[in-house]
Amino acid sequence: MSYIAPAEFAAKMVDAGESKVFMSTKDTLVRAYMAGAILALAAAFAISITVNTGNPLLGALLFPVGFCMLYLMGFDLLTGVFTLVPLALIDKRPGVTIGGVLRNWGLVFCGNFAGAMTVAVFMAIIFTTGFSTEPNAIGQKIGVIGESRTLGYAAAGASGMLTLFIRAVMCNWMVSTGVVAAMMSSSVSGKIMAMWMPILVFFYLGFEHSIVNMFLFPSGIMLGGQFTWMDYFIWNEIPTVVGNLVGGLTFVGGMLYATHYKASAPRNAKPAAQGDDYLSIAAE
């Protein structure tokens, strides 16, 4: 597997964040667009498996194929840059500013959204035979998902918003663990194995991923879901983005940076207690 120690991949995390800040606008948008599109296809793939087999676990087991593909091709998800890019700012890398971090996040959001929307339109056409028939079973399922995860939260009020936020936090805790886990290995097989596990966990548990939702909810609206664009943004996308930021930066990027990149000095050996000295003398 060619394992890389935590102290080494923690440095890679900061370096990766710095490189993304200085990436050109064109490259940032293209890589984000492709990442959003591939992840959307993976979501459509997983939902198709779930509907056709009646087994959600099987869909979750195979969903990570999309994440692995986009990561290995060097594409960027908003969830990943939420975790990596701020580390370059925290580490005070030359030229890295708050403006640069926000620029990267904004460009990646736009690219991810455009890519996911492209696939949403394409899949809506497929599920309805060019909008000439009612959605098939998979299309109907996507519409129901959109309703339950917007109007369902709204019906619960503040409790629903809290639940949505926590699901988003937990999502990027897992997804960013997958991003970082891929840095633990220098081999393709090792990277895939490390990424697969946390991505499987987030998808099966139904956590809220901002880019997956960029596909699910617009396509749900196109497929006849009984909710609006305002419902989608207020009762899902915006809180999910905020929760993803908190989850990835706090529980993955920040923790690894604090303990592996900026590890504290080891404690001195504990002096022997007075009773221990007495026992050692008596033994002599």
Major sheet, described briefly? none
Strand content: under 5%
**General form:** globular
What structural class do you assign from the helix and strand content?
A: mainly alpha
pLDDT < 50 stretches? 277-284
Number of strands: 0
End-to-end distance:
51 Å
**Overall helicity:** over 70%
Structural features, described:
With 284 residues, this protein is mostly helical. The chain starts with 5 loop residues before the first helix and ends with a helix. It is globular, with a radius of gyration of 22 Å.
Topology readout:
Blueprint: H1 6-21, H2 25-53, H3 56-62, H4 64-72, H5 78-90, H6 98-127, H7 137-148, H8 151-155, H9 158-181, H10 188-204, H11 210-222, H12 229-261, H13 274-283
Helix pairs in contact: 1-5, 1-12, 2-3, 2-4, 2-6, 2-7, 2-11, 3-10, 4-10, 5-6, 5-12, 6-11, 7-11, 9-10, 9-12, 11-12
